[in-house]
Amino acid sequence: MNDKEKIDTFLANGPHAVVGASTDRNKYGNKVLRAYLQNDLPVFPINPKADEVEGIKAFPDLASLPVSVHGISVITPPKVTEAVVEEAAKLGIRNVWLQPGAESDAAIQRARELAMNLIAAGPCILVELRYRES
């Protein structure tokens, strides 16, 4: 699949989770969460240190979510991203969007080995959702 097809597949269904959702509105983990909300897309914030983000109950990890999610946007340090890919695979989450800066070669390689619908090394969901608004 090309990037457009991967993005369409990723956004085709919900809900989604933002792994690395931040309580700081200046950080991308918060901006990505708000982009989902502004587009009326169901989303769960994942933050092990916060009870809520943007008024929404936050969860410490993907395994704690009350429902299965269709995909995850990942905004974490690259080493953490590697563990997130493994956790997603164990939970059957097939759609993974690594936001710029969250990627590592190991995480990308592992997601490909697991045949995930992986979006990495380029497109940002913030740009994609703004484009879809217009």
Could you characterize the architecture of this molecule?
Strand 5 (71-74), helix 3 (78-90) and strand 6 form a beta-alpha-beta unit. With 134 residues, the chain is an alpha/beta fold. Helix 2 (28-38) packs parallel to helix 5 (125-133) and helix 3 (78-90) runs parallel beside helix 4. Strands 2-1-5-6-7 form a 5-stranded parallel β-sheet, sandwiched between helices. The chain has a two-stranded antiparallel sheet with strand order 3-4. It has helices at residues 3-11, 28-38, 78-90, 105-113, 125-133; strands at 16-19, 43-46, 52-53, 56-57, 71-74, 95-98, 117-119. It has one domain (3-133): Rossmann fold, CATH 3.40.50.720. 38% of the residues lie in helices and 17% in strands. The protein is built from 5 helices and 7 strands; from the N terminus they run αβαββββαβαβα.
What is this structure, in a nutshell?
The chain is of the alpha/beta class and 134 residues long. The chain has helices at 3-11, 28-38, 78-90, 105-113, 125-133, and strands spanning 16-19, 43-46, 52-53, 56-57, 71-74, 95-98, 117-119. It has one domain (3-133): Rossmann fold (3-Layer(aba) Sandwich).
Structure characteristics:
alpha/beta, Rossmann fold, five-stranded parallel sheet, 5 helices, globular
